[in-house]
Fold:
Amino acid sequence: MGEMRVAVVTGAGSGVGREIARALLDAGYRVALAGRRLEPLQETARGSAAALAVPTDVGDPDSVAALFDGVRAEWGRVDLLVNNAGTFGAPGSVGELSSADWQDVVQVNLTGSFLCAQHAFRIMREQQPRGGRIINNGSISAHSPRPRSVAYTATKHAITGLTKSISLDGRAHDIACGQIDIGNAATEMTSGIATGAAQADGTIRPEPTFDARHVADAVLYMAGLPLSANVQFLTITATAMPFIGRG
Structure:
C-alpha cells in the first residue's frame, strides 16, 4: 500500500457514509468509522482489520475529542476527514419549526462538522508529514431549499462557509478542504424521494435517484489528489432531479 493513510468518516453507519467508508477501506485506507450506534458501524466495517468503529455523537465536544484521541492513539495521524454526518430533523417552515428542533439540526449538521474539522485540523497541522484534507458533505440544499426544510437548508448553506474558512485557514498548514454537494443519492435517508417528494409548487412528485456508490467514487477522487490540488466544490446529482432551472 505504501505510506499509511488514515481517514475519519462520520455518519459511517448507513447510507452515503457507509459507501464512502467501504470505498476508502477498499482503497487501502485505515478508516475510523464514527456514528451514533456501534452495530451499524461494525456492519460497515465487515470485519476489516483496517477499520476502527467508534460510537460518536458529533454534536458533543467530549465525544468528538474522544473520537480523535482514539484515532491518534491507534494510528498516530489523520490524513482525511469526511464530514458526512447529518440529519434532516423535524420538517417545518420558518414559521413553524420549534427552537428545540432548530437547535437539534444545527448541533449535528453544523456544530458537529465544526468540531470534527477543528480536531482534524489541529492534528493535521502538527503531524509529520504535515497536512491533510477535509471533505464536507454539503447537499443540493447548500444551493437551493426544499419546502419546509429551514433548519437543514440553513445548516447546509453554512457548511459552504465552513468549507471556505477551513480552506483559507488551512493554506499555511498544507490542509486542503473541499465540499461535495449530493442530490438524490439512493439511501435509506432519501427513500421517500423516489415515491414522492414535496415540490416548490406544493405538489408531491416522485424524483429520480442514483446509486450512492458514485458519491463514494467522487470522494475517492477528491481524497486521492496531492495536497497541492483541491476540488473546492463538486456537485453530483440524479441527472433529471428538479434542481436546475425551476423544477
